[in-house]
Design brief:
alpha+beta, lyase, 4-stranded mixed beta sheet, EC 4.2.1.79, 60s Ribosomal Protein L30, Chain: A
């Protein structure tokens, strides 16, 4: 049975035993040798395939190429065999922290992988690159990798359930550093004290502001989770060498909660699995059918429906109001007060976080494409710009309540659309969850993950490489250490050479 752990700020003169600190409780979950349930194993396989799919689609993009070049400019560290880098041949390896960095950027670049939203929001698949990199480096087998990934997902999702970061403009990767460190601890079979020190260090080094997701969104949006994964690998290395971390990192009077989150009067309740309880958090997360911010998924599906059966021409629209949750309105909607969200010259990263743009394009096109929907030509089309400027969002208390609901049957990420046509006709429709959501019209299953992988990989991987990777991934819990080291995607000849090749300090 899940245990709810109260977490608050302690004054320095108050005694908070190390074993009662949240970092230590996270570590206790990590070292629990409980078996991984079969349905969890199945979902971990799905997400490994999903991560590789979105990484393949981003191999030639500039941020990914730069991160890959940085990683490959570093040799393998002396403590292991090294780790592979997405796109590069399997015999081209680098130090695990740099592989975590390069692969993490590739996975996040298109914002196209899995998501979990609660008190905070997250992409728990960001745990996969650092944990996989360490597994390859130390020669872990598939079963150990599965256990590590189950922990990474569990800890991140549990933290996201309980502790809001964005309210205080702290980036959500502050939950990723601790979860990846915990997952690596499980993978390596470390003791509880070592994992606790790694969790504390990983948190301390991965707290940053949300400016990377505000205004004109930069390429650091893709780099932020990769940096957190890299920091987690390094934190584990230091902890294994006996180095300690700030303590208590969450609860201290000068700690993260007191000065970055809800302050000295904060009180949280963090749910963690009890001893012997299976880690099933991954099953509460969901992936993306469309390459866009998760809150846009359901809206794309609704726009697709209205395009195909709405009975009106988008050119006849006078105004569109999307009534939705607080988060959608203020983060990707007009409530953000970001002029860039209505700017046809905005970056892809910014358009990805503009629901007015996304709904306009999806309504006109009847779908969404991870490349074509973001091109400057598409964003600058005159009829699209005209429709785009007519779309606003509004917070609706009921959709906000459903967004934050603990009941999975009513938790929702969509809203209600009101479309007013030039002749005064009003069209009203709504959607609660994306079609691909577990409660949606077409929930994603293994065949959908494989189809997504094939779609995104075919332009950059040889057919034989696609089949090789899928065959390995589907056997994940049975893989030998040698096979884990081949859990990589190798680009077609010439693909990486066509990508930008920047030089830097290294």
């Amino acid at each position: 049975m899940t245990v709810i752990h109260p977490v608050r700020v302690y004054r320095s003169e108050e005694d908070l035993p190390r074993t009662e600190q949240l970092a230590h409780k996270i570590a206790q979950v990590a070292v629990d040798p409980v078996a991984v349930d079969a349905d969890v194993v199945d979902m971990i396989v799905n997400r490994v395939i999903d991560n590789a799919a979105v990484a393949a689609a981003s191999l030639t993009r500039a941020p990914v190429s730069a991160a890959r070049a940085q990683a490959l400019d570093h040799p393998v560290s002396r403590g292991g065999a090294g780790a592979t880098v997405f796109g590069a041949p399997n015999d081209t390896v680098t130090s695990p922290e740099w592989a975590a960095w390069a692969n993490g950027v590739a996975v996040r670049e298109l914002d196209y992988h899995d998501t979990f939203l609660a008190a905070e929001y997250s992409h728990p698949g960001d745990n996969i690159p650092p944990i996989l990199a360490v597994a390859q480096h130390v020669g872990a087998d598939g079963a150990a990798l599965v256990r590590g990934l189950a922990t990474g997902y569990e800890i991140q999702i549990d933290l996201v359930r309980a502790i809001c970061l964005h309210k205080h403009k702290i980036d959500h990767v502050a939950h990723l550093g601790p979860s990846a460190a915990a997952g690596i601890g499980t993978l390596l079979g470390l003791d509880v004290d070592t994992v606790a020190q790694a969790v504390g260090q990983a948190l301390h080094t991965t707290t940053a502001t949300r400016q990377s997701r505000k205004g004109e969104i930069s390429t650091w949006k893709a780099h932020a989770p990769a940096f957190a994964g890299k920091m987690a690998v390094e934190a584990v290395d230091r902890a294994m060498r006996g180095e300690t971390s700030p303590s208590p990192i969450y609860e201290g009077e000068d700690g993260v909660i007191a000065w970055m989150l809800d302050g000295k009067d904060a009180a949280y309740e963090v749910p963690l699995p009890a001893a012997g309880e299976a880690k099933r958090g991954i099953l509460d997360s969901y992936t993306k059918e469309h390459s866009a911010e998760y809150q846009a998924q359901a809206w794309i599906d609704l726009a697709r429906k209205l395009h195909n059966g709405g009975g009106f021409d988008p050119a006849d629209v006078a105004s569109i109001v999307l009534h939705t949750s607080h988060h959608t309105h203020y983060v990707i909607g007009s409530g953000a007060n970001d002029p860039q969200k209505y700017d046809p010259t905005a970056s892809r990263e910014t358009l990805d976080h503009s629901i007015p743009y996304i709904f306009a394009v999806a309504l006109q096109d009847g779908g969404w494409h991870h490349v074509d929907s973001y091109t400057p030509e598409r964003a600058g089309r005159a009829d699209t710009v005209a429709l785009w400027q007519k779309i606003t969002t509004a917070e609706d208390a009921e959709w906000t309540r459903r967004y934050h609901s603990d009941d999975p049957d009513e938790k929702a990420f969509g809203g209600r659309v009101e479309i007013t046509l030039a002749d005064g006709t009003t069209i009203v429709d709504e959607i609660a969850v994306a079609d691909a959501h577990p409660l949606g019209a077409r929930p994603f299953a293994r065949a959908d993950y494989i189809r997504k992988f094939r779609l995104l990989a075919e332009p950059v991987l040889e057919p034989a490489e696609i089949e090789r990777f899928l065959a390995l991934a589907e056997r994940l819990p049975e893989l030998t250490p040698a096979e884990v080291r081949e859990l990589n995607i190798v680009a077609k000849p010439g693909v990486l050479a066509s990508a930008p090749s920047p030089r830097g300090l290294f």
